[in-house]
Amino acid sequence: MPQSVQRRQAASTGRRLVRKTRPPALLAELALRRGFRVYQDPLANLFIRRDGKDGHHPPFLIGSHLDSQPTGGRYDGALGTLAAFEVLETLEDAGIVTDVPIEVVAWTNEEGSRFAPGAMGSMAFSLGHIPESWQDIQGTDGVFWRDALAETIAALPVAEQRALGFPISGYLELHIEQGPSLENENIPIGIVTGVQGTRWLEVTVAGQAAHAGTTQLAFRRDPMVAVTSALHMLYETVMPEDDNARLTIGRIAALPGSVNAIPGSVSLTVDLRHPLTDRLNTIEAQVLAAFQASAALHGCKVDIRKTFDMSPAPFSKAVIEGVEQAAGHLGLPSKHMISGAFHDALYVARVAPRAMIFVPCRDGLSHNEAEYVDPEHSVAGTQMLFQSTLDVLNTLAIKQ
Ligand SMILES: [Zn+2]
Description:
Layout: H1 2-13, H2 15-20, H3 23-33, E1 37-40, E2 46-50, E3 60-65, H4 78-94, E4 102-107, H5 120-127, H6 145-154, E5 160-161, E6 170-176, H7 181-185, E7 189-195, E8 197-206, E9 210-211, H8 223-237, E10 246-248, E11 252-255, E12 261-262, E13 265-274, H9 277-297, E14 301-310, E15 313-314, H10 317-330, E16 334-339, H11 344-348, E17 354-359, H12 375-395
Bound molecules: zinc ion (ZN).
């Protein structure tokens, strides 16, 4: 098992294959060679099925995604998809018959780097339809999403067509952590108990544009002063007082943006994250209060709009329990953790019990060509996915 995982990891990103064979086509070819059935749905989500005893029972899904970032690495998505295929092959090699069909899934466009939004495949799967507004989406290269989708589907004629959003009994995804905590603590397995919530705010503080040289302090209504003092207060409190809170100001602009003018207004984005809805509410209220108080103090007005609100998504108890049991069976050290990034599991969470398994990546680095996973950790993660699949079927009370 270990060597074949490594071989496939290398093969999936090898230069020759990237140029000549799309990763889904390569995976489909490997699957057909093993006698598995290959399907794709109208979103080009790819499914590889190994039948169970009960052909009518909704399948248990394991997998991840095969797309990447423009300067992405070899493991984000690919590890979870290829490890899932390894699980299917291992079940086949060991002659293990499950009651429930097991299917590997490779979700379409998780990253959203060419066509936004990301996680289109799992989102449409959980909705059961393709949102009308997606038809007019254009990629960063000007190509229409609908044309790229049609081309992707046509490129895999070996796959049988299947409807979008069929019932499933559960979902399990192996992924690299994309952060440094497992590596720092020298723990090979993260048992992911949920995805944290995210809120985006757009804040505009308006004051009065005036001459930089002639306007004395008493006559200034400077929105930059209001913004910086509010931010200072927030940076000193939000994250220092709560390890699970995240506050990021990623974009800030002053208008008119002239070197010798006090700005008339300053606009900025605020990205807030937390695993608990209550805490997100409190932190959002803290942000609002900080800007309002600071704007009032400096004779400015503030306008705050919420542009994005993704609730925290706790994963299913039964699936987490199965993963815990698997770690125990394999004797692998593990810890519970919350995912800081979005994943397909977030959307699948709306339709089925699910959880995720994380493995460490070097220096926590991801979305970078230097992304690296120690082979030992790839193997541990794949063994965890295999054992967890069997244990989760038990904890979900699906007969073996
Ligand atoms: Zn990913």
